[in-house]
Specification:
Layout: E1 8-11, H1 15-25, E2 29-32, E3 51-54, E4 64-66, E5 70-74, H2 79-86, H3 93-101, H4 105-108, H5 113-118, H6 127-133, E6 137-142, E7 145-150, H7 151-157, E8 166-173, E9 178-185, E10 193-203, E11 209-217, E12 224-225, H8 227-233, H9 240-249, H10 264-269, H11 271-289
Parallel strand pairs: 1-3, 2-3
Antiparallel strand pairs: 4-5, 5-8, 6-7, 6-8, 9-10, 10-11, 11-12
Helix pairs in contact: 2-3, 3-6, 9-11
Length: 292
């Protein structure tokens, strides 16, 4: 039975305060930012925690810092802010498109990048495959200090993190690539995507793909890269039709999850078409830059 007692809310002013409070609460506490996932806990028949630690007042977690080497995004930055503040950075189109197209405007105004990463029971999170395609790293803050890890490693460990661990920021290395995000919702407004393809491709002067990072979301229980496809794309021409054909040849590596919105086989079968859309987007970006 779900508890009807209102949980306690502690508003932290610094990361250190938040970590200490969560460590003290132990498994009875949980961090809260946009709260879009926590507010749906009763729908999922998941019990609320006895205490929540708000991260909303922590300045550094609401900031975005851009340097020549990397872009650092505070974990409490919302989808709406991501799209608005980083929309002028061409290499981050995969992330800003993911942020701008996820859920609906009301949710985008409060849902955070950190929350998207931490929602272990939500395989359809748009920002996760986008961040994976950008080789982003997650910075965790604990009572023992901070450490950085890859998005993939974080996803594997997030369900077993000790109390007191919070996502502090996400760092993205600046690279000379083009990127794109393609998603397939069954309806247009506020629908979770059936499948997601996020791609970041480096293109040599001769038009061939010199490096590829492609991540898939919503198809399985957890987002992951598509290394078989990445390897096959490298060395060939940047061509959406070619990418679609290669994608169709490497579908067996996925085991689609069945859900109320779509069966597993359908999630995998739409991947080549989504890949075609992503690569076609990248082709258009390249042609625009070259003035064609």
């Amino acid at each position: 039975m779900l508890s009807k007692r209102a949980p306690h809310l502690y508003v932290a002013k610094t990361v250190e305060e938040a970590v200490t409070a969560l460590h003290d609460y132990g498994h009875d506490g949980e961090p809260i930012a946009g709260a879009t996932w926590i507010m749906r806990a009763p729908v999922r028949r998941a019990p609320l925690k006895k205490a929540y630690v708000s991260l909303a007042a922590i300045g550094e977690m609401n900031a975005i810092d851009v340097t020549e080497r990397e872009i650092s995004i505070g974990a409490s930055v919302t989808h709406q802010a991501l799209a608005a503040m980083l929309g002028s950075v061409p290499s981050l189109k995969v992330l800003t498109d993911a942020a701008a197209k996820s859920a609906n405007p009301a949710v985008r105004g409060v849902a955070t990048i950190g929350g998207n990463l931490c929602s272990a029971g939500f395989p359809a999170a748009d920002l996760v495959p986008a961040l994976m395609s950008l080789a982003a790293e997650v910075e965790l803050a604990t009572v023992n200090g901070s450490s950085r890890t890859s998005v993939e490693a974080f996803l594997q460990a997030r369900a077993s993190l000790e109390p007191g661990a919070i996502v502090r920021r996400i760092s993205i290395p600046r690279r000379a690539h083009y990127s794109a995000h393609a998603r397939l919702p069954l309806r247009k407004a506020g629908d979770y995507p059936v499948a997601i393809v996020s791609a970041a491709l480096e293109v040599a002067p001769d038009g061939r793909v010199s490096h590829a990072t492609v991540a898939v979301g919503s198809v399985e229980e957890r987002s992951r890269q598509w290394p078989e496809l990445e390897n096959a794309l490298v060395g060939g021409p940047l061509d959406a039709d070619r990418a679609k054909l290669i994608g169709a040849q490497h579908l067996r590596v996925f085991k689609g999850r069945d859900g109320v919105e779509a069966p597993g086989w359908y999630r995998t079968q739409v991947l080549p078409a989504l890949l075609h859309r992503a690569v076609a987007d990248i082709q258009a970006q390249l042609e625009k830059q070259q003035g064609r």
